[in-house]
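Quick entry between incubations.
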Amino acid sequence: MIVGGGIAGISAAVEAAEAGCGVLLVERAPYLGGRVAQMHQYFPKLCPPLCGLEINLRRFRDNNRLSVVTLAEVTEVFEHESHLRVKVRQQPRYVGDQCSACGKCIEVCPNQRNDLFNFGLGSTRAIYLPHAAAVPSRCVIDKKHCSGASCSKCKNVCERHAIELEMSPNEFDIDVQSLIWTTGWQPYDAHKLNELAYGSHPDIITNMMMERIASPLGPTLGKIRCPSDGREPKTIAFVQCAGSRDDAHQSYCSAVCCMATAKQVNYVRSVLPECKISVHYIDRRAQGNGERFLSKAESESNVRYVNGKVGRVSIDSGHPVVVYEDIGKTTLISETVDLVVLATGITPSSCSSFNADVARRTADGFLSDTQASPRQFVAGCAKRPMDVASSVRDATCTVACALARFKQGATMDSTRNIQ
Ligand SMILES: Cc1cc2nc3c(=O)[nH]c(=O)nc-3n(C[C@H](O)[C@H](O)[C@H](O)COP(=O)(O)OP(=O)(O)OC[C@H]3O[C@@H](n4cnc5c(N)ncnc54)[C@H](O)[C@@H]3O)c2cc1C
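Done. Structure below.
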């Protein structure tokens, strides 16, 4: 069993199935792909992430050893000597697999909800397709915003009779040999960064919101615009380490934000070459061959990397003002900008529904498999912040170790923690 259908979970599922195992992938969201599905481009190659996902999903579809349940979570794990018994709870989608995502139900739905896939930049109807390239390509109903049977407009318009407003949760037990947690990460909650004024002005956004704004499938169809009034930003300040490497928030480095910002600088430059960009950083950190990638972003015209911390973001005359130090000048500087992008880091996903003793956590809150049962493993960003290439490598190594351990019999000795 693999829990979490992001890039790490999909990779683990495909590798295990291709090695001959039966695999059940359990995903909490109504679609597969995790955070990668929300991104515009991958660093370092700057290709569309949906393309990389699609390659894996094709391997997925071609393999009849693999099954997936979406909208599902593991609620309990029972240890037995020869196997694990796992309890899974699947929330109702209210839309059956006859759905062809034709969108007629969406057109007639009278109710709106916040578009969570786009981090609240826009809204969807109560019945919606999670995103344009969602897998499975099937609508889902947000019951909190649905008027139910008294409305039934979606049900009446659906020619395939796919809408089932009375669907209820489904619970089942399954016995598995091994379980790999690939539950990934969530963005650090920018509301906790009081000094950076997130939430007080629509033009103070996070780096993940920037991914959605830049995406051609996103709320602005890929046009970089200020959320407040839709104008092109003429100045953008990127605030690095927003909540990372800070004992008041997360003391660790999120490992990917410097590269992610360099990527975002690159695509802002490609569509708005006149836009003046400043990147405020404490240290620049790159994994692997990333140093060249960072240097390239830094050397672009109209781009300024400023070494020093942003102490405050405030609002003056309706515009964000960034107050920062520039270590080279030993002064505090205030600058009014059109758009502020907070590079919020990686926080471990919450897995509140499963028995906390089953998968233990590190001091930083990530899942740790070193003390857990020998049949349970952790891979990808559930373990620590890492980029996509590292997540895929880690998932593959983890499957190899699970297979080796399963064949040789379970042992508590773990030498598996390979990146
Ligand atoms: C702003 C930003 C930009 C980035 N850009 C890049 C880039 O360009 N290139 C790059 O290499 N890396 C990039 N990264 C890093 C990249 O996002 C991660 O490497 C990648 O998402 C890790 O994949 P994962 O599968 O481990 O986790 P995730 O993508 O988080 O997937 C985890 C999955 O598990 C599911 N899940 C969570 N909890 C449960 C549960 N309890 N039960 C069932 N399912 C659950 C989630 O719904 C999700 O589908 C970026 C990161 C940030 C912050």
